[in-house]
Structure formats: C-alpha cells, structure tokens
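Posted in: Structural Biology > Protein-Ligand Complexes

Title: Requesting predicted complex, AR6 in pocket

I'd be grateful if someone could produce the 3D structure tokens for the following input. Sequence and ligand are given below.
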Amino acid sequence: MANLQVIQGDITKLRVDAIVNAANTSLRGGGGVDGAIHRAAGPELDAACRKLGGCPTGEAKVTPAFNLNAKIIIHTPGPIWRGGNNNEDELLKNSYLNSLKRATENDCQTVAFPSISTGVYDFPLERAAKIAVETITSFQNPMTVQMVCFDSATYNAYKQALNE
Ligand code: AR6
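-- Reply #1 --
Done. Output follows.
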C-alpha cells in the first residue's frame, strides 16, 4: 500500500520522482499550482504540453520535469465543482488514481500531489481530502506519496482525513 505523508509547503521546491500538477483540460498552464509549476519548470514545459493535445478531466498525462527536481510531471485536470451531482467525486478519485498509475508505469518511488480541485475549481476541502486520502492509501504499490498543502487550512483538512 502507498505510504501517505501530509506536509505543508511549495510543491515546486520538492525533490521527488513525480510532481502532480492540478491542470486544466487544455494543459496549457494557468494560475494556482499550475502556474507555479510552469514558471519553475521553464518554457520547455509548455512546448511539451502542447504536443499532448489536452487531457480529459480525471485522466493524467506525463511530461519531463525540466527545471524541477523531479523525473516527471503528471498533469491531471480535476473536476470543477458544480454542486456535487455532476460526478465530481468520481472524477476527483480518477485524477488521483490515474496519476498514481502513471507514477507506477514510470517507476516512481516518490510522488507529490497538490490538493487537486480545491482552489479555483472550488471542490469542498474536507470532501476532497477524504477522497484523496482513501484513494492514495488504498493504492496497491509501496510508494511514498506526499500531499503538499500550500496553506494551513488545507494542511489541517488532509491531516484530519488521514487520522480518521
Ligand atoms: N504548491 C502546492 N500547492 C499550491 C501551490 C504550490 N506552489 N500553489 C497553489 N497551491 P488550484 P484547482 C494550492 O487553484 O482548484 C489553474 O488555473 C492551492 O492553494 O491551483 O485544481 C489550472 O490551470 C490549492 O490548495 O487548482 C486550472 O485552470 C491547490 O493548490 C485550475 O487552476 C489547488 O488550487 C485548477 O484548479
């Protein structure tokens, strides 16, 4: 089973095998963690993303990590919250699961996730944290996964979900 750690910090500063990006379906960059990852990785990342031709919500695609201290970046567009009756829970679970599958295929031992969908996409934090923790801790691969929380409210929500 994957070993999950919850930490607070900036995901672009970590040294891990795979950094997951909370992207959008165009994969052409944006604000939030996506913007931070693109700035830190450098302009080659956008060139690599352009070749991927976008990515459906809940799926995950891989690029090199360029100037980040990682082997790969896994880009996954999480769901936009639309009230909870539009398959948001399943799509968020798919984002974590498909990212973990890409990490496994690429022989990654250490993977860092941001809190997918809980920023601009407005997914309720406690609900997202529960889905993330359940999906990661039931994944059958002995990798180390770090949930990298940018602010203390996010950190507290994932800590609580992990302790439940
Ligand atoms: N390290 C770790 N977490 C971060 C960082 C960072 N450097 N910067 C922000 N966060 P968001 P979403 C946190 O909005 O909700 C983009 O424009 C942030 O505080 O980045 O999935 C994309 O292009 C929050 O807890 O992602 C999409 O259009 C979490 O990352 C859209 O936003 C996710 O917030 C995706 O929205």
